[in-house]
Amino acid sequence: MSEHQHGADCGCGHDHEHEQEEHVFIVTNDEGEEREMVMVYTFESEGNVYAVLLDRQDPEQDGVIFRIEEENDEAFLVGIDDDAEWDRVTAIYEEIARTENEQ
After folding, report:
1. What gap in Å lies between CA 79 and CA 73, rounded to an integer?
2. Is the pLDDT of residue 2 over 90?
3. Rg (CA), the chain
4. C-alpha 47: how far from its chain's center?
5. Its domain of life (predicted)?
6. Cβ pair 54, 6 in contact under 8 A
7. CA distances from 9 to 14, 16, 45 (A)
8. How far apart are CA 78 and CA 19, in angstroms?
9. What percent of the chain has pLDDT over 70?
């Protein structure tokens, strides 16, 4: 993914100064390991909203992108299985990160 560094002055539009406002999720990988992931960025594409999460214990690792879906006023994260959708959203996020890193 990208090498976008998130911090108080990263320019991604999120206020990183307020740690108590972190959106933390427990995500289980394919091997059954649970990781605390922090939502650091959201963006929209083709009518869907996507969230970029970083591992709370290893923020230098590449982020993971999930689609945010809503049902009965509740939002939840959904993995992206469609290759075309994955290619599209990773390209969008990489361009966003590249643009922000140039500023």
Report:
1. 19
2. no
3. 14
4. 17
5. Bacteria
6. yes
7. 9, 8, 25
8. 24
9. 80
Could you tell me the two tokens for 99?
């643009």
| Separation between Cα atoms, residue 22 and residue 99, nearest integer Å | 24
Residues 3 and 94: beta-carbon distance below 8 Å: no
Q: How far is it, in rounded angstroms, from Cα 44 to Cα 28?
A: 24
Q: What is the pLDDT of residues 62-101, one digit of tens each?
A: 888 999 999 998 888 999 999 999 999 999 988 888 887 7
Tokens matching residue 75: 């939002």
SS (H, E, C) the chain: CCCCCCCCCCCCCCCCCCHHHCCEEEEECCCCCEEEEEEEEEEEECCEEEEEEEECCCCCCCCEEEEEEEECCEEEEECCCCHHHHHHHHHHHHHHHHHHHHC
Distances (CA, A) of 6 to 40, 68, 69, 73: 7, 21, 24, 29
> Taking the complete model, does pTM exceed 0.85, yes or no?
no
